[in-house]
Give the backbone structure.
Amino acid sequence: YRDPLKRSGFIKELEQRVSAIPGVRNAAIGGGSAVPLVGPHNSGGFTIEGDAVTNNAIPTAQISLVSPDYFRTIETPLKRGRFFTDADDRKAPPVVLIDEALAERYFTNRDPVGLRIKRGGPQSQAPWMTVVGIVGNVKSDGFDKPDQPHLYHPIFEIPQYAMAIFLRTDVAPTT
C-alpha cells in the first residue's frame, strides 16, 4: 500500500492474524533491520534536545521500527518507562524507545525517559520524539560484539514496506 494509513492497517491485521495461529504465544512485526544478528542494520544520527554539538559530531544509533509486542516476543525486558502501544501511530505525538547502551552512552547521569530527541543534526526539520522507555540491549551484530546503541520507533507511526514477522510459540516451530 502506498498510503501509510492503509499500510499501517495491513501491518496490524497481519499481526492479529499470525497471533491467532494455534500455538503462537506472541507475535510482532518489525522493519527489516529489526532482525537481531541479521544485517545490514539501519543507522543514523540524532540530536538530544538541549545538548550542545561539538565538532559537528552527533550521536548515532542503529534504528529499528517495531510493533508493540516486539520486545515481549523476543523477550527483551523493559527497564524503565513503557513499551509502545497500538495508540502510538501517525495520529499520536512521536515517541521512541532506546536501549540501555544508548542511555549509558549519551544520557550519562540523567534519566532519558521524558526527554526529547530528533533524527539528524540540530538543524534537522525532523519532529521531536519523546523517549517513553528504555529496553534491554539486543545483540544485533554478533554475540562477540559490544552492544550497540539502538533507537526504536513504533512501526504504526512510520509503517515500512520491508517487514519481518517474529513469533514465539508453545510448539515446535516446524509445526
About this structure: The longest strand covers residues 24-31. Residues 4-19 form the longest helix (16 residues). DSSP finds three helices and nine strands in the chain. The two ends are 31 Å apart (CA to CA).
